Amino acid sequence: MGDERFYITTPIYYVNDVPHLGHAYTTIAADAISRFHRMRSVDVFFLTGTDEHGQKVAQAAAARELSEQAHCDELHENFRALWERLDISNDAFIRTTDPEHKEQVKAALRKLWDGGWIYEQDYEGWYSVSEEMFVTDDTEIERLKAAGKVEFVKESNYFFKMSAFQDRLVGAIESGELVIQPDSRRNEVLGFLRQPLGDLSISRPKSRLGWGVELPFATDHVCYVWVDALLNYCTALRYLNDGTPADDLYGPFWPADYHLIGKDILTTHSVYWTTILMALELPLPRRIFAHGWWTFEGQKMSKSMGNVVDPNRLIDEFGADALRYFALRQMPFGQDGDFAAAGLVERINSDLANDLGNLASRVLNLVARDGGTFTPGEPTAATQPVIDGFNAAAADFERDFAALGFATALRRLWEALAATNKLIQDTEPWRLCKERDEDPAAGALYDEVMRTSGSILQSLAALLFPVMPGQMSVLWESLGGEGSLADYRYAGDRRFLSVSSAGGVEKGEALFPRIDAKSVPSFTERAEQQSE
Ligand code: MSP
């Protein structure tokens, strides 16, 4: 492990939801960047989990005639199972019903209470169960009333003095102490903070909702689900275990380097969470990155519309690696994008089957047929420009990937791939191979072209491992790479990895078989069945 540390989180997903492409997206991104840093000897802690309290969960459990806990115990497995299928390498999976989490939420609430940051007041207003929030905007209230999606409540509530932190929060964002990305989201938060900030209701009376963490200073109330949920980012590090922060996790890893979130939950993270942290006298997260929203063939994905894209169906059809690549390559992180089956098939066929897969099968076939060994040697003018091009692309890749610019970083690597494919087309190694008995120069060029393209492939396998851990490990092994790629750690800045001449190169199966666009079924099918 290196000296550097990196802590990254995804939102904890509502346990009731059938996991869909949107959830998979955030988790894939967090996984890719975690793997990227681990390969560079950074000590990573990657957290995901499920949000299991609140009225929605209580209602869903009641509808199934199950206890809330039994309902959550069953449903959270949908997320765990999907993360396993997607090769997600999270270090922890937190559930807000974990006793350790609940104890720490109570301890944190107690701290806020003792610090004088919480007061009691009667409250009345319109509450949206689906959003688990009071709605204050009049137009929004009218819209939701018409849709039957809000209920009027009048109750005693405990409030967090969020308003006391408004100026400090603006200062933290403006000074860069708290970075909100992309810039458009930062501006959105600063815009929001131009209005006076209210206080935050942080409790629900048990008479209305019993499913939550009890307030330690008012046991007839439970904690508002968002406060409980946000605290997960600290409790997973055992922030207040036995009343004190744990040395092994909290100490080294907090503050988070990135909270990855979708743009839908920007305010809860940038405003609620940060002010709670201020009241708890904890350092703010370094960065909050709010990515964009996936639509399905132009429409918002929603259960009621039956167009929720089920990642399980995509994995069944194309494999986890292709889905991971598509998710990160298709839409720039931070912007919105549309999911369409045709786009996915096109990406798989052109980028993976064609550009990457064909290069791999050409090189592996030729070398495997030729004794399975690369011949050692130094590059000449015939291949040096391709190597230089690769090194330049790899340097750009490093910079962009680290900044979560996945699509740009990947596009750049594909330029190096194109140059390598061109080298093969121009030199026609299958012809050189036949000529080498009569023509030693042809033999030398053949060896050099194979060695260079094999080395670039092996280097690409390592660079692309965070995105496609499964098939890049296969490629690495086929090329005779040493050990398992999952254990590979870069030594220094060099990204061009020369293939070994120890032999053992194998032809293997096609890495990414071409997809027949006509045979692609509906991706929303299984999600529909599950939500019925
Ligand atoms: N439980 C809260 C989060 C609490 S975090 C302390 C929640 N859960 S959720 O299940 O609704 O997940 C929301 C997250 O899922 C979004 O922020 C985003 O990361 C991801 N996505 C859900 N739908 C999405 C799309 N259609 N497109 C992209 N990502 C979206 O909110």
How would you describe the overall organization of this protein?
By secondary structure, this protein is α/β, with parallel strands linked by helices. Among the domains are: 5-161 and 199-254, HUPs (Rossmann fold), CATH 3.40.50; 340-487, Isoleucyl-tRNA Synthetase, Domain 1 (Orthogonal Bundle). Helices cover 48% and strands 15% of the residues. The strands form four sheets. Strands 3-2-1-12-13-7 form a six-stranded parallel β-sheet, with helices on both faces. A four-stranded antiparallel β-sheet has the order 5-4-6-8. The chain binds 5'-O-[(L-methionyl)-sulphamoyl]adenosine. The site of 5'-O-[(L-methionyl)-sulphamoyl]adenosine has 20 residues, from strand 1, helix 1, helix 8 and strand 12.
Task: Based on the model shown, name its key terms.
single chain, 532 residues, Isoleucyl-tRNA Synthetase, Domain 1, 6-stranded parallel beta sheet, 15% strand, elongated, binds 5'-O-[(L-methionyl)-sulphamoyl]adenosine
Structure at a glance:
The protein is an alpha/beta fold and 532 residues long.
Question: Helix and strand layout, with pairings?
Answer:
Layout: E1 5-14, H1 21-39, E2 43-51, H2 55-63, H3 68-85, E3 92-95, H4 99-114, E4 118-128, E5 133-135, H5 138-146, E6 151-160, H6 166-175, E7 179-181, H7 183-192, E8 200-201, E9 203-205, E10 214-215, E11 218-223, H8 225-230, H9 232-235, H10 250-253, E12 258-262, H11 266-279, E13 287-291, E14 294-296, E15 299-300, H12 311-318, H13 320-330, E16 337-339, H14 341-369, H15 384-402, H16 406-427, H17 429-435, H18 440-464, H19 469-478, H20 525-531
Helix pairs in contact: 2-3, 12-13, 13-14, 14-16, 14-18, 15-16, 16-18, 17-18, 18-19
Bound molecules: 5'-O-[(L-methionyl)-sulphamoyl]adenosine (MSP).
